[in-house]
Specification:
The chain is α+β, with helices and mostly antiparallel strands. The chain contains six helices and five strands. The protein has two domains: about 35 residues, no CATH class; about 150 residues, FAD/NAD(P)-binding domain.
Length: about 210
């Protein structure tokens, strides 16, 4: 998604330093010192990592039926149906969240697919006087199991990486991305909608 990455990387004033091999030993004034050398800096940005896939959603105090917090529902690992909704959380739609193709698809394309599907769903709900939509527990469990089964056929779950939550202390280890392919995922979402939003519980307005 970036332009000029390699051109920037190859500039004479850019140096790649492996701080696992040569840790930062100190900072004074405009100088950063590692165990192997010193570097003059104008600015220092401390990019310390991020809580991928679930972090942005869990940073919000989202509550579902009975006041259940999404954080509590996901304490042993994220659960969703097609990534789009979570059982127990009516009218909560997620975009490229846990158990979607997300980071292993083209992100703008993945986001666009989610937004289009949700938009079409809202039109359907309004035209059929439906007040709430919610993933069924059995549909959610089936999708969670399917995404885990697909992931187990790869090396991804064996890597100690941010995609497994390894950079966040205490975070449950779960490969949170659907590896079945974006085209298959899109077809599944379309099929669910074509069958009257199969796997969802739709409740009419009072």
């Amino acid at each position: 998604m970036d332009d000029d990455y390699y051109a920037t990387f190859n500039r004479p004033n850019v140096t790649l330093v492996d701080i696992r091999h040569a840790p930062i030993a100190g900072i004074a004034g405009h100088t950063l010192r590692t165990t192997e050398g010193s570097y003059e800096l104008d600015d220092l940005v401390l990019a310390t990592g991020f809580d991928a896939i679930t972090g942005p959603l869990l940073a919000i105090d989202i509550r579902g039926r009975g006041g259940v917090r999404l954080k509590d529902k996901w304490k042993s690992g994220a659960k969703s149906y097609l990534c789009l909704c979570a059982a127990g959380f009516p009218n909560l739609f997620m975009v490229t969240g846990p158990l979607s193709p997300s980071v292993l698809a083209n992100m703008p394309t993945a986001i666009e697919q989610h937004v289009d599907w949700i938009g079409d769903c809202l039109v359907h709900l309004r035209s059929h006087n439906v007040q709430t939509i919610e993933a069924r527990d059995d549909a959610e469990e089936t999708w969670v199991a399917h995404t885990a089964d697909v992931a187990q056929g790869t090396l991804y779950p064996k890597a100690n990486s941010w995609s497994l939550g390894s950079n966040i202390p205490g975070k449950p280890r779960q490969f949170g991305v659907y590896l079945g392919g974006f085209s298959n995922y899109r077809a599944r979402c379309n099929d669910v909608a074509a069958h009257g939003y199969e796997g969802f519980r739709l409740e009419p307005a009072a």
